[in-house]
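Deviation from plan, reported transparently: S-adenosylmethionine complex.
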Amino acid sequence: METWPELHKAVREALKSLSPGAGSTMVAADLGCSSGPNTLLVVSEVMNTIGAHVQETADNYRSRAIIEVQFFLNDLPGNDFNLVFRSLDQHQRRLQGLAAVEEKQAAVPCYIAGLPGSMYTRILPCQSVHLFHSSHCLIWRSKIPEDLSNGTHVNADNIYIGKTTPKVVVDLFREQFEKDFELFLSLRHKELVSGGYMVLTFAGRRREEMPMQGGVARVWEVLSQALEYLVPKGLVEKEKLSSFNMPYYAPSLDEVTQLIKQNDLFDIEDIRLFESNWDAYDDSDGDVVLNCSSSAENIAKIIRAGIEPLIMNHFGEDILEELFMVYAAMLAKNLEKGKAMCPVIVVILNKSEL
Ligand SMILES: C[S@@+](CC[C@H](N)C(=O)[O-])C[C@H]1O[C@@H](n2cnc3c(N)ncnc32)[C@H](O)[C@@H]1O
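Because the crystal trials were delayed, the predicted structure below was used instead.
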């Protein structure tokens, strides 16, 4: 994974915030862990880094640091935590096996717990966490901006910020992001110990891109078009489309940097933006999509996995198959212009020592 180096660095720094002495417990939490194949990868990466650190202390100081880890996996209450719990046993055995064969790594006990709740609320006790990780979660807003959900303003049949979105609506999306992100920073600041770290990864925009430009707006604009296509077919009501908006905002690198600085709770240890292909299976070079149909199918699956519950709640289950078929066909056409890249922001934040 592209962001593992940042995670390794933050784990090593966060270890320094452990109280010295025997029997230290490091507390880590992954926010928006989901229940897919990647959920426990983060735990493995953190544990491998801690294991290597413990081994290094043993090699260098002839006495091994004694560390235990409490790892919280957080997501919204609707997440399939049971699926995660069922895969834990196998995961623990794999970790122990790895530690046994890997000479450079000590086995460190890790206690994993599910933590249902929104990251836009308090979820852990004051000053109890050494490391927060969150990947592809902070793009989600806590809610649709009120003046959009109550109909004061409308978004001209866009479901996210599109080329025809009025400026006042763009501002509503941005303001909702600002409120959510500031709230998130102040909540995590309370929960982190002094010297604690956060590694946050989320889709965003390049510096020069306006909110209706870039790789995030592009994929949602095509989904708006697919929904619109279903209106004359009688599958989607026009009023339903007008009142549907995504609780989403892709901030620019500058917006994120400015908010963190303004907020003044964290030091930015590192911030950068990289481009990742929306089609995770396409690792070809250059900008040309070699097989637009199969690439579009792959992207449609990712987008569907992310927003199926929202679409179902608003439009009903019956449109799903047709909608995503039309979406994939429209995306395939769109990909003839070039690859759909998603700008991703990764930032390491440190709660400075008092
Ligand atoms: C695209 S998945 C990312 C999964 C995983 N972290 C990864 O990088 O592959 C986004 C996850 O964020 C979760 N999520 C969205 N809003 C959230 C919130 N307010 N609090 C906690 N989790 C949230 C969703 O339920 C979903 O599981």
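DSSP finds eleven helices and seven strands in the chain. We consider this an acceptable substitute for the interim report.
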